[in-house]
Amino acid sequence: MNMLSVTLLSVSLHTAAIEELCPWPESGSQQQRYQQQLSCYDQELVKSRRTLAQWEQHHEFVLQQHRQRTGRPAAYNSFKSSQQSFQQLKEQQCRWQYQLQLPDVQLGAALYKRCQLQLIKQRAEQLEALVAQ
Length: 133
Prior knowledge:
Layout: H1 3-21, H2 30-70, H3 74-101, H4 105-132
InterPro entries: LprI-like_N
Domain Lysozyme inhibitor LprI-like N-terminal: 31-127
Organism: Alkalimonas mucilaginosa
């Protein structure tokens, strides 16, 4: 299985998991259902950002220790750069999905938040998996 297949599989698994976490509400007006969905995404984003921050702090601590022990800052600097790149990728990846839905701002917001949630969860899982190696 090549990297593209693994990435696509990972994204589809995250999509299914997010749809289970925040299923489309079955009752209420369209406006109420969007609000419920957005509220669920907001709650899950708070949890996921917290989890990601914990894994980032863990790796940053380990890499700072490595830098102090060896005097080589390359790994630490690369990790910091990867954090910035991830933030940019996440913002741009989700922004175009939002813009594609315009003028339906509610659907755009829902897709934007779902995209953010998918990418944050995926990044946190990747950082967690590095600990086991």
